[in-house]
């Protein structure tokens, strides 16, 4: 948890303008440290993404066919992982953790680490459509 927090607040990694700044605004870092980031297998990451897209948001559900959603999620996941499943570590939290989120039950954040290239991604999905 402390490693993830240190990445979020590291000024040299969040050069302005940065969307990380939006996530960091109004964040209660003490509360952040109590969140449960769950480790997710890179082998099922595309399925989790497909489920999130198919659920939609607070006001609208996706109108795309599930087969199309699954295909897009797989393509997106493959564009990141590129077959190197053993070099990726993925964490997910399903709670809003800053003022950026509406905290209405559809908040989701992934922190994705690529050990081979020393890169990481933060992907956040909020309540609102």
The chain-level mean pLDDT equals 82
Q: Whole-number radius of gyration?
A: 15 Å
The SSE string, one letter per element, is HHHEHHEEE
Question: Regions with pLDDT < 50 over 5+ consecutive residues?
Answer: none
Structural class: alpha+beta
Give me the count of strands.
Answer: 4
Largest sheet: 4 strands, antiparallel
**Sheet with the most strands: spatial strand order:** 1-2-3-4
Number of helices: 5
Please tell me what the overall shape is.
globular
- Share of helix among residues? 25-40%
Keywords:
129 residues; alpha+beta; 4-stranded antiparallel beta sheet; 5 helices; 35% helix; 18% strand; globular
What does the model show?
With 129 residues, the chain is α+β, with helices and mostly antiparallel strands. It has helices at 2-9, 19-24, 29-32, 45-55, 66-81; strands at 38-40, 88-93, 108-114, 119-125. It has a four-stranded antiparallel β-sheet, with no helix packed on it. A hairpin with a 4-residue loop joins strand 3 (108-114) and strand 4. Helix 4 crosses helix 5 (66-81). It is globular.
Kindly summarize this structure in a few lines.
The chain is α+β, with helices and mostly antiparallel strands and 129 residues long. The protein has 5 helices and 4 strands.
